Amino acid sequence: MISVAEAYARVLATARPLPPETLPLPEAAGRVLAEDLAADRDFPPFDRVAMDGIAVAHAAWAGGQTVFPVAHAQFAGAPARPLPGPGVAVEVMTGAVLPPGADAVVRYEDVTIDNHQATINIQPAARAGVNIHARATDRRRGDLLLPAGTRLTPAALAVAATVGAAEVRVARLARVAVVSTGDELVEVAATPLPHQIRRSNAYAVQALLAPAGADVHLFHLPDDLPTLRQGLTNILAAGFDAVVLSGAVSKGRADHLPTLLRELGVEEIFHEVNQRPGKPMWFGARAGGGPVVFGLPGNPVSTLLTAARYVRPWLLARQQPAAGPPGPTPAVLTAAVQFRPALAHLLPVAIAVDALGVRRATPVVVGGSGDLAGLLGADAFLELPAELTDFAPGTAWPAWPL
Ligand SMILES: Nc1nc2c(c(=O)[nH]1)N[C@H]1C(S)=C(S)[C@@H](COP(=O)(O)OP(=O)(O)OC[C@H]3O[C@@H](n4cnc5c(N)ncnc54)[C@H](O)[C@@H]3O)O[C@H]1N2
Ligand code: MOO
């Protein structure tokens, strides 16, 4: 049986970059750029007035002139009109081009304007440039602003917009089929018979993966072998990047998936990982392209934790191959934990940040991997190594978000 680290490495080894697609910029929020975007102009592109007021020649003001005739007004969006003379002021609005010849702006709060004459009520600024956002102070034309691989966060999207990227090349979404299996499962809207339960795993996996950049399609297949075979055959041929199955990977007589997947040409990369929950996890890929297949154990806690530990990082790695997926963040245990089996323990925890900024992890009581309500208080899980059995309060361990 392989370790969590080995299983993770084998999963990530299959994460090839996603092919690019071109999208209108507003639709590309949250996506990862597949092209470099450079500054098409200086930032700012002209000497920009930063405060509403009057623009003057600093030399005149510093030389003792306090009263300036006001020639005209320069509004944002109007072409630049120069200062008519060194002793003359122009009214200027924030965002306007600084009138050529002016090199200082005095705020309206610091002047009195009466009958086209401005009187400055403050001491001259020590240097020219006051209240001016000078051309090219932030970035220069040609500077690489957003290299390929950058995620289009709100700030990055604003920069892409300002350099005129009306359409952008971005990694396309990964197409993911999430397939629940099992004859005991009925629709959410159904009233289950005493021996039935409502499906929940596929929704949990969808909720985990969709915000991470997956185009998720949900399916449900019964345990009956011919129907399962036909359904899986169709799903494997439908052009998905990944097929995420929940259930039917353990040792029960209806746990057909490992055998069936092999029969359908999906080669096993591993089956069983040295972890609890999630030990029966299966992973494989179809030779000659086609989707990778995650066979997640069906117990709801196992499904969600293994999806968070393996599937989401695989998805993020495909979007940003150079950066790799974000790793876990350490958190400090608040209570002693003992775990005897020689398995890595994925321990659901509630994370709180203390006054010193330390992330503290309090174990959440989960009554086994069928207790999906037990996860309600958890926002992460610690990965406690298989080699140890006793974990003292105050020790730090990797925490993965849920
Ligand atoms: N003899 C052994 N039995 C089991 C072993 C083992 O090593 N030897 N491993 C146990 C572990 S650990 C787990 S986890 C489960 C995993 O089994 P499967 O992946 O085959 O899952 P199922 O049997 O299909 O289902 C398990 C459990 O989860 C419920 N389930 C399944 N799918 C959903 C869904 N979409 N929504 C809600 N609930 C779901 C299902 O009804 C079962 O109760 O095997 C142990 N057994
Ligand atoms: O994965 Mo099983 O749920 O270890 O309990």
Total of DSSP H or I helical runs spanning 4+ residues: 7
Radius of gyration: 31 Å
Bound molecules: ligand LQZAQKY5, molybdate ion
Q: What overall form do the CA principal axes indicate?
A: elongated
Global structural class: alpha/beta
Determine the fraction of residues in helical runs and give it as a percent range. Answer: 10-25%
> How many beta-strand elements?
28
Poorly predicted regions are none
| Average pLDDT number | 96
- Major sheet: order of its strands? 7-4-6-5-9-8
Beta-strand content estimate: 25-35%
Structure description:
Pathway: Cofactor biosynthesis; molybdopterin biosynthesis. This protein has 402 residues and is of the alpha/beta class. Helix content is 18%, strand content 31%. The chain contains 7 helices and 28 strands. The protein has helices spanning 4-12, 58-62, 154-162, 201-209, 225-236, 257-263, 300-319, and strands at 20-24, 37-38, 48-49, 53-56, 67-74, 89-92, 104-107, 111-114, 117-120, 132-133, 144-146, 167-171, 174-181, 185-186, 197-198, 214-221, 242-246, 266-271, 275-276, 282-286, 292-296, 329-333, 337-338, 344-353, 359-363, 380-384, 390-391, 396-401. Strand 8 and strand 9 form a beta hairpin. The two termini are 25 Å apart. The mean pLDDT is 96. Residues 276-279, 297, 299, 302, 369 line the site of molybdate ion. The site of ligand LQZAQKY5 has 27 residues, from helix 4 and helix 7.
